[in-house]
Amino acid sequence: MAAKAPVEKVSSSTDTETDTIIVDESPAYLRDFLRPLLLPYVQRSSHGFVPWFQKVCGVRPRRKEKTENGEGSAASDTPDYAEAWRDPSAPMLMRVWNAILSLIFHIGSMLGSEIIYITFFPFMFWNIEPALGRRLVYLWAIQMYFGQGLKDHLKLPRPWHVNPRVRSLESDFAAEYGFPSTHTMAIMGQAVIVVVYTYREDYAGNGQYPLLFASFIAFMTTLVTALSRVYMGVHSIPDIIGGVVITFATLWTYLSFDNYLDLWLMENGEALYIPTLFFVGLLLVYPRPRTFTQTYGDTAMIAGVANGVMIGSHFTHINNLPRLPLNWLVVRFEWWIVYALLRSVLGFGMMVFVRQIIKSLCVSTLSRFLPASKTPPAERYSIVVPTKFITYTCVSATSVAVCSLIFSLMGLTAQNLEAAHPL
User: Fold this and answer.
1) N or C: which end of the chain has fewer CB within 10 A?
2) How far is CA 115 from CA 210, 222, 305, 391, 405, in A?
3) How far is CA 122 from CA 286, 313, 347, in A?
4) pTM of the model
5) What is the pLDDT of residues 63-95, one digit of tens each?
């Protein structure tokens, strides 16, 4: 009989009830070393900085309710307003202050979500710079695999698991663990890559790249995203610091070989199948938890996006498809906007069509051939993971290769449009 996974009681405070979370499922040296080291800091931040920061910003803590036996509990929300700007009885100054911060932090939190990347990356390939888009995807896949894997391996709790007084403003990640903050990792990595790439290319052509200004924008974007995760109540300060440290280590390694990786993927025929084998191997050894969470499926989706981009980029390169993005230095900006929107409407339409077809085929096929189970297909790793990997491989390959081919056949290439609408 398999041994039962040990559990640990994480005390929220002396006057609140205790949460029970699964800590370990099998012996693991990294988890056994890091978890006892990090957990006290997560608990301290969850009782200290996180509720303080939420209070200062105008987020209302969860209040105690009286149960039938007369004892207080903060485990469930009372029907008050989560944010001050929604409360008509709150002071006007606090409502305005909270409304501004709420807008900023909700946008900052949204920047690190998967749906933003799934729409932003195709737009980058079609309308801005494919080479930069490829580098962003490569780094995104590396960061998210390690970040998501650490979440499910270390199993460190989110602030509202430790302190029920912390108000969680997001429900999408309720079943996921906390450390590290992958939103912070993703935004910080993307911001640095954009600055480094544009600095290398020197688009102005005169060596006067505004490095300090670009670095400031990258820093502020990262800072807003990091603080937004605390505001939303889903991350503690150790989660943020961990994400920053891991991103520094990843960037230091990645920037030493990103050009070589891109050249190999463009020039070698093995790029049509080696990335697929590589990502499948990574997904097979992923530290998936026994209790279903979306983290493993999201990791499969990200791996699929990167795999499709690598295959699609190699296809466009070896077939010498014309360049799509217009040079805004030689074409009128309003025409750049028109054609960017046109490509986006056509491209996203094709992506949605491919996604629906491939996802339906994968789910129906896997459900038919895998052993029957009482667990819904949406909560079975054996269905969710391969479905997301295959689906988003096809979707991203469509966005990079098929859309590029169709745009070329329609005459929506940079050469044709720049000649038709010069400055």
Assistant:
1) N
2) 30, 18, 12, 15, 24
3) 27, 12, 8
4) 0.83
5) 655 444 444 444 444 446 777 778 777 788 888
